[in-house]
Write a structure and sequence with these properties.
The protein is of the alpha/beta class. Helix content is 45%, strand content 13%. It has 18 helices and twelve strands. Strand 3 and strand 4 form a beta hairpin. It is elongated.
């Protein structure tokens, strides 16, 4: 009688391979290699397979969840190792929070797999994983780093599908294939035949990947963007340590300012708009010191060009904002944007107002002072320079799709993103945020000028092509200025109209599986009288 490929009963604990508990840890290096600095995006299609196989085979929910926690804690700690430049303790806490979210996913996955554990159920877990990523993007303020779709940034035809469904749609084939391959690995470990259902299930991610790539090839062939404006970028390369010391040195702010001003003079004649990076204006803009704002106005008049400048803005009541100000060639302030997605700890501390004692405890533990005092921005106004409308983002804002999409719906033709990644030296963080930022351009088919302090400054086209600013072949820790045309809107997109419909649909699918999925049926009399085969986990 042929052996069934369906997992029908859990193996006795003594018959499980001793190394099964270590299996999910194999996903850690595979995932890390898929992102920068290794940047082997193809690994995303197999990276989750060991972890998925473990969830399929390990029927003890407590062990499945605990090993999931440690797997993802190790990955996030390794992936965010660049946070070591800013703090020792905080990034471990962030890793733990993100790992707890995956702990909850493992509980859901095991609940679902206990009901049904075949190839189609594994595809459902892959869909649910994308939904969980979408949840992680917004849960408790959100952290949209290390989304599976970001690993595909180098595959230009595939990522064109972002104008249909954003990053979740781009990452969906990788999640589905990893889930199916994880099921195949589980059956091999259980010494079961792979089965026809597995062969049919593989066709789903293969067909989706083929369709999205085909769409991308067609989209690249038909896309015809035009230049909206010539935008100048000033990258002064002020190390964060120098920037911090400038606050204590009377001449420090002037040295920073003069370096920016000298670079600005190099490009002012050929620029329609000149950008300075995040918080690169040397003095805070505050009613207490009106000369600071007057100096900014004078700078724009001397330059004779509209300028978009990153500033720290302090209101009359003491509230602080990480802002950008648009100052026209006559020295008039024509626009203001306050950063909406603040970096946890460095700019905004959770519970700072509702539980100030937590802030005090955190400062004692980490020995950090003066962090987390910024306010979140509320307004999202389109700015205008030389008759062309644009939207402004600041650093971390570019990791979310909401602001760029809102700008597109309000008539913006291109984007400007000001950032200061000098905190992280020349680490892979600079590459990772640039890789994620290009999706904002594809989603809404508009170009972007990305101006940073230490790199990587770049011009991103409406098709996601990136032209990095380099000096002597280097893109990090270099100073200079450049001008290039920025693509304007190249048409409306489904994503601009519908937003994160793929991510929301996948998340809704999680709820459907959790509450309306098939219930585990009792065994038939014939099944109950025959002993389960050895080494076969439940139901797969």
């Amino acid at each position: 009688m042929p052996q069934s490929s369906r997992l029908t009963a859990p193996p006795p604990a003594a018959e499980r391979p001793w190394w099964l508990v270590l299996l999910p840890l194999a996903s850690v290096p595979l995932l890390w290699f898929a992102w920068h600095p290794v940047d082997q995006g193809w690994l995303a299609y197999v990276a989750l397979s060991p972890w998925f196989a473990f969830l399929i085979l390990e029927t003890r929910v407590r062990r499945a969840c605990s090993m999931t926690f440690w797997t993802w804690f190790l990955f996030f700690t390794l992936g965010m190792n660049w946070l070591r430049y800013t703090t020792d303790a905080a990034f471990l806490a962030i890793s733990a929070i993100l790992a707890l979210e995956m702990f909850a996913f493992a509980w859901f996955a095991r609940r679902w797999l206990a009901r049904r554990n075949d190839a189609w159920a594994w595809l459902a877990v892959g869909v649910a994983f994308i939904g969980w990523e979408y949840l992680r993007t917004y849960l408790m303020g959100g952290y949209p780093w290390f989304l599976l779709g970001h690993t595909q940034h180098a595959y230009l035809p595939l990522i064109q599908a972002a104008d249909l469904g954003g990053v979740p749609l781009v990452g969906l084939p990788a999640a589905l294939l990893s889930a199916v391959l994880g099921g195949a690995l589980a059956r091999l470990i259980a010494r079961l035949p792979l089965g026809g259902d597995l062969a049919r299930a593989v066709c789903v991610p293969a067909a989706l990947l083929t369709a999205l790539s085909g769409y991308g090839i067609w989209r690249l062939h038909t896309l015809r963007p035009t230049t909206a404006l010539n935008v100048g970028i000033v990258q002064a390369n002020i190390p964060q340590s120098v920037k911090d010391d400038a606050r204590l040195n009377e001449d420090g702010p002037w040295e920073m300012f003069e370096k920016h001003e000298a670079l600005t003079r190099q490009i002012r004649q050929s620029s329609d708009l000149i950008c300075w990076a995040e918080t690169m204006y040397s003095w805070p803009i505050t009613p207490k010191y009106p000369r600071n704002e007057a100096g900014l106005r004078t700078l724009a008049r001397k330059t004779g060009r509209p300028m978009l400048v990153g500033v720290v803005l302090v209101e009359q009541d003491g509230r602080q904002y990480n802002s950008s100000l648009l100052v026209d060639a006559d020295g008039e302030i024509r626009g203001r944007y306050d950063k909406r997605h603040l970096v946890i700890v460095a700019e905004a501390m959770p519970f700072r107002k509702t539980a100030p004692w937590l802030m005090t405890l955190f400062e004692k533990i980490t020995r950090l002072r003066g962090f987390g005092s910024m306010e979140h921005g509320e307004r999202l106004d389109v700015m205008e320079a030389r008759g062309r409308r644009f939207g402004t983002l600041i650093c971390f804002d570019s990791m979310w799709s909401d602001e760029a999409r809102s700008y597109a719906r309000d008539g913006a033709e291109f984007l400007c993103c000001l950032s200061n990644d000098g905190w992280f030296h020349e680490s892979e963080q600079l590459d990772q945020i640039l890789a994620a930022t290009k999706f904002r351009c594809i989603e809404n088919r508009m170009g972007m000028a990305r101006c940073t302090n230490t790199g990587i400054s770049a011009y991103i086209g409406a098709d996601g092509r990136v032209k990095e600013f380099a000096v002597g072949g280097r893109v990090k820790s270099v100073a200079g200025a450049t001008v290039a045309g920025v693509d304007g809107r190249a048409g409306n997109t489904l994503f601009t109209a519908w937003g994160e419909w793929v991510g929301m649909s996948c998340l809704a699918f999680v709820g459907i599986l959790a509450f309306f999925g098939p219930r585990k049926s009792p065994p038939s009399p014939a099944e109950s009288q025959s002993p389960p085969p050895a080494s076969i986990p439940e139901n797969a």
